[in-house]
Design brief:
Blueprint: H1 2-22, E1 25-29, E2 34-36, E3 40-42, H2 46-58, E4 61-64, H3 75-87, E5 105-111, H4 119-126, E6 134-141, H5 149-156, E7 161-162, E8 166-169, H6 170-175, H7 177-191
Parallel strand pairs: 1-4, 1-5, 5-6, 6-7, 6-8
Antiparallel strand pairs: 2-3
Length: 193
C-alpha cells in the first residue's frame, strides 16, 4: 500500500511540474513617456518601468498596448484628449493586438487616469476572453491609488480571478528605482514568484 501511495505522490508531483512548465505568464502594459504629472519629461513611462521589472523577475513575456494615434507629448494636451475619451467612453484604436489564449496568468499594468484605466486599454480588454485567467493588476498614480480600476477590471474581465491591484506612485517608480524594485520584489515574492 505504501508503494502505491508513493507512486501516486510521484505521479502528482510530476504532473504538477509539467503543468507549471506549461503555464505561461504575460505582462500587458500601457504606459506613456513624454511629459508626465509630477515627474516632467521622461523617456520611459512610470508604469513601463514596473512592467519591465516584473517581466524580468518572472520570466514573463511583455506586450505593450499602443494607441494607433499616440497621445501628444505635452501633459495638458494629453490629458485634454484622454479626458474627452473617458467622458465619451471612446475606444481608441490600438496599433496591434496580442493573442492571450495561451497565457494562464496576466500581469496587467496601467497608469490611473481620473480613477480608471486609460480608454485604449478598454479597447484591448474588450477584445479578449478572460475567463479562467489569473489577472494581477499593477498601476501607477500620484495620489488617487487604484481608483475604481479594480471594479472596472472585474466588470470587463468576466470569469477571471482578479487580484487586488499593486499601486505605486509614478514619481517613486521614475525617481527611486532601487526602492521601486525592492517593493516589486517583495510583492512578487508574496504572490509566489
Amino acid at each position: 500500500m505504501k508503494k502505491i501511495f508513493l507512486s501516486f505522490l510521484l505521479f502528482i508531483t510530476v504532473l504538477g511540474c509539467a503543468y507549471a512548465a506549461e503555464a505561461k505568464t504575460l505582462v500587458v502594459i500601457f504606459s506613456r513617456a513624454d511629459e508626465n504629472y509630477n515627474v516632467g519629461y521622461i523617456e520611459k513611462g512610470n508604469t513601463m518601468i514596473l512592467a519591465e521589472m516584473i517581466a524580468e523577475k518572472t520570466g514573463a513575456e511583455l506586450f505593450e498596448v499602443k494607441p494607433a494615434k499616440p497621445y501628444p507629448a505635452d501633459y495638458d494636451s494629453c490629458i485634454d484628449i484622454a479626458k474627452r475619451e473617458q467622458n465619451q467612453r471612446l475606444r481608441p484604436a490600438i496599433l496591434e493586438d496580442k493573442d492571450i489564449s495561451e497565457y494562464d496568468t496576466v500581469f496587467f499594468g496601467y497608469p490611473v487616469w481620473w480613477g480608471d484605466i486609460p480608454m485604449c486599454l478598454y479597447t484591448f480588454v474588450e477584445a479578449h476572453e478572460w475567463k479562467g485567467k489569473k489577472i494581477i493588476p499593477f498601476c501607477t498614480s500620484e495620489g488617487s491609488g487604484a481608483g475604481r480600476t479594480e471594479g472596472t477590471l472585474k466588470n470587463k474581465m468576466k470569469g477571471a480571478n482578479i487580484l487586488k491591484p499593486f499601486v505605486m506612485t509614478g514619481s517613486n517608480a521614475q525617481n527611486n528605482r532601487e526602492n521601486a524594485e525592492k517593493e516589486i520584489s517583495l510583492w512578487l515574492h508574496g504572490l509566489g514568484f
